[in-house]
Request: fold
Amino acid sequence: MLVKTILNRIEKHRGFVYASVRLEKRGGALELDVYILPRANSRARCSGCQRQGPGYDTLPPRRFEYVPLWGILVFFVYAMRRVQCDRCGVRVEVVPWGDGKCQLTTTYSWFLARWARRMSWAEVARSFRTSWQSVFRAVEKAVLWGREHQNLEGIASLGIDEIYWSRKEKYLTLVYQLDEGRRRLLWIGRERKAKTLLGFFRWFGKARSRAIRFVCSDMWRPYLSVVAKKAGAAIHVLDRFHVMSHMSKAIDKVRAQEVRKIKAAGGVPVLKDARWLLLKRPENLTAKQDVRLVDLLGHNLRSVRAYLLREDFQFFWQYVSPHWAGAFLDRWCTRVMRARIDPMKRVARMLRKHRGLLLNWFRARGTLSVGAVEGLNNKAKVVTKRAFGFRSYRVIEIALYHSLGRLPEPKFTHQFC
Ligand SMILES: [Zn+2]
Reply:
């Protein structure tokens, strides 16, 4: 049958032959069984030590799921031999198309893992008529292989970020590589404590940590102290994304307080549905929102003043010299302290306290790509949302590494997808 010819072309295994192919109907669906036999006179390899040994006996045939063909499920059927190994005793043999524990062939496992990067795991399972568990296991295997074989040479810039993921543990700490052309997720840890980040540096190793030139993070105390201790040679930068999100949070707080105040006083609810008007950057507003914003800015509201202070701060990032940026920062902070808007004052105080790290932004410019942390953070949020419903740490961890880790894959004779 032609299927054999194709298989010999795309997946030939030394010491084994494709014997026959049978089309069966099971549970109303067609399935293709590909029978495999050991080549005559070939000796089985012991799964304990990988060495060839004399045969002991043969187990009943097992089915290994392979890549489906024309919507027909395909199985390799093979009766595994047992080896009488002088080192390990009686052991089952190793087969090159899969491992002893998994029902999926290695090829099919990689096939599923690849699709799982393009669509949700549930969709992959539905499309290829397999279970969600099989897809998860395939992805998990791909991640383990990829992390073992990834190249960690030449990493000069790191970004440390946190995302909210569960009510119980709240945060995950993510560490990214931010070098130009090589942006990827390197490491994930539970929570956002000093202990968490110490875990990263332990994994990353001393020599590599010493070679780090830039670290980009939020003004989160445990991160700051751990970076100072473990990557002392690096310039620590407070990145734009995190700084600006502190301001957005402050504006949101001011707005919420003011909405309550206006409502209590029975005033006109001008701030109704104004949340996104104030949080989005003006260039991202629609024409209709634009008109509303202009209207809103005409009111003397604390929310509007907070908004204008943030918009003014955007100029900070355009400076070239750290000196003049510093002068701008000082003036801005003074104005905010006089503005009597508490949430904004807290931001100003925080920026003053971290003035040095903030100005490092200008020293690192050109080497760190602007917006890289924000882009990765958004992707990570999408992944955690998509994994919703399977909220175990292991699932989130595997999903994030799989989508953002840029992990390598082994070389195959044939590209299935
Ligand atoms: Zn052995």
Q: What stands out?
A: DSSP finds 16 helices and ten strands in the chain.
